[in-house]
Amino acid sequence: MPETLIKICGLTTPETVDAAVEAGATHVGFVHFPDSPRHIGISDAAKLRQRLPKSVRAVLLTVNLDPKATALALQAIEPEVLQLHGNETVEWLQLLRDNSTLEIWKAVGLKDRGTLERSERFKGAAHRIIYDAAAQAVPGALPGGNGLTLDWRLLLNYRHQVDWGLAGGLTPENVADAIRFTGAPLVDASSGLESAPGVKDVGKIKAFCAAARDAQPARV
Ligand SMILES: O=C(O)c1ccccc1NCC(=O)[C@H](O)[C@H](O)COP(=O)(O)O
């Protein structure tokens, strides 16, 4: 059984990046989206990215970022993964995939079982789909990092056509249950590892990684 991949998202400081690496995270995420309390500028993300050993992958997260700004960010940060968290099209993902060595991940708000089927349109364009809680339909709501848990039952017995990961409201306390219940091959957490919006807690990062590592997935 392959080990569950662990992504710690929204890191902005050397201390928390180092803590994630030491705790066994496989992926570290940088949110480049000015509306987010976890936003990080390109040059700061590029510096933090340098702290990662080869075994830990950098994930650059953007939301409907235009092609020119995307190219500049990719050039400076050199992430292994680009996670798209907006309304990006299949065609845009395909273009990125066909013209780079990047892994392309697409975040999808999981509302109902139909969302899983509709997400299959990303097959061949996205290397991985990250199922997150659907964003709230209120002005100013962020498309991610909201600490909302999705209904894990929607994922039960679904035969995924694309590699996937689980996000949304994951914490050190619930991540083992999430892995056992859904069989998620990757877990992704952000606000559940914070002491205040945008402020990651080293102790929570360590506890999350330990709990995720120790969980026994029941994959189908
Ligand atoms: O984290 C943010 O602020 C953010 C803002 C805009 C789009 C996506 C964002 N985060 C995406 C992530 O990868 C989070 O890990 C994921 O949404 C789960 O967040 P949380 O429920 O807070 O663990």
TrEMBL record:
Protein origin, superkingdom: Bacteria
EC annotation from Swiss-Prot or TrEMBL: 5.3.1.24
Pfam families tied to this protein: PRAI
Catalytic activity, as annotated: N-(5-phospho-beta-D-ribosyl)anthranilate = 1-(2-carboxyphenylamino)-1-deoxy-D-ribulose 5-phosphate
Keywords: Amino-acid biosynthesis, Aromatic amino acid biosynthesis, Isomerase, Tryptophan biosynthesis
Pathway: Amino-acid biosynthesis; L-tryptophan biosynthesis; L-tryptophan from chorismate: step 3/5
Record InterPro entries: Aldolase_TIM (IPR013785), PRAI_dom (IPR001240), RibuloseP-bd_barrel (IPR011060), TrpF_fam (IPR044643)
Gene Ontology MF terms in the entry: phosphoribosylanthranilate isomerase activity
Domain N-(5'phosphoribosyl) anthranilate isomerase (PRAI): 6-209
GO biological process: L-tryptophan biosynthetic process
Similarity field: Belongs to the TrpF family.
Protein name per Swiss-Prot or TrEMBL: N-(5'-phosphoribosyl)anthranilate isomerase
Species, as recorded: Aurantiacibacter luteus
Gene from which this protein is expressed: trpF
